[in-house]
Amino acid sequence: MIISGATLESQAGVFAHIVTYNSERWVRVAIKSLLEQEGYSVGSNLFISITDNASSDNTANVVREFLRAGISFRCNSENLGYCTAHNQGAADFINSGCRYLLILNPDIRLKRDMLVKFVNTLASDDRAGIGTPLLFRADDKLEPVEPRRIDAAGMILTNSLRHFDRGSEQLFEQHLYQLPCYVFGATGACLLIKRDCVNDLIVDDPEGQEDLYKVFPVLRTNANRVQLFDEAFFAYREDADLSWRAQHFGWKVLFIPEAIGFHRRLVLPGNRSTLPAELNRHSVRNRFLLQINNYRFRDIPLAFIAGLLLRNFLVIAAVLFKERSSISAFRDLWHLKRRAFRRRELIMAKHALIKPMGFVRTTDDINKL
Hints:
- The protein has 11 helices and 13 strands.
- By secondary structure, the chain is of the alpha/beta class.
- Strands 1, 2, 3, 4, 5, 6, 7, 8, 11, 12 and 13 form an 11-stranded mixed sheet that branches. It has a two-stranded antiparallel ribbon with strand order 9-10.
- Strand 9 (155-157) and strand 10 (163-165) form a beta hairpin.
- Helix 6 packs antiparallel against helix 10, helix 7 packs parallel to helix 8 and helix 8 runs parallel beside helix 10.
């Protein structure tokens, strides 16, 4: 169900999409920060759409407070996951006429000049299809933690095929992150995608849907969406998959330090033991899906031993002997294997046609195992 306070008539500009799930603590601040962006006004060059995944708290009522401001609101009757909900938003974006799709978490506050700097810098680089901002850690009120610590300055990929938020937890040193640069990936908490890049990244595979429904029967729905994010990921690691696919298709991911936001991050590598079992299961399954979809020996030869052999062995052993609640991730992977390898074929076939130049990694990627 969509409750609309605006029309899809933007001739150009930014289509911002937020997915909420029990997000009442932060979403009001996130929406206000969007509405207050310098140089942007809703209904002119900014369209804001929010999709709620069947929240059980007061999120829906908080969002409805802003309908008069011109936002649109969709309420899913069940939790369809991060990927499917954002794919619903991506379908709306394609029909909107906007030039840029902003994927945004509900637990982020943007600086007032963030969007104009984000768009202008990304627009100036023809090779870049995705922009990723400089995010600082925030408290529960989405105010920056002092002294300032980096939440994410893009994403890195290590030789063990682990992906991390670049600079995460570090005290901010401006000289290290003052210039735009290409990075492996963009954080799913906040990323900006050009329209042409969105169109390129959509991978349709109708034959694989039945395999998907074996694992996620809730996704057997008539919800209108396009396949921008891989719905087999449901949630977690989908941003790394999207970024890697973008590189396969000839697009670069650009870190834009002038675009600043403040993020209340809940999922960190160091707090895995305290996370819900379901989230850890998604993490295990999606590690292997990420590799099936994207890994090529010629791009990262050192990862064959460090990542495909050693790290994967350690992950499997840890699940079997320590984190047994994640064993069902391997059952999911078994059901999804045909779909994953067929998806890989589609991605690599397009890669072969485009023949992109170079696989982007940074010194951060190389130096961290």
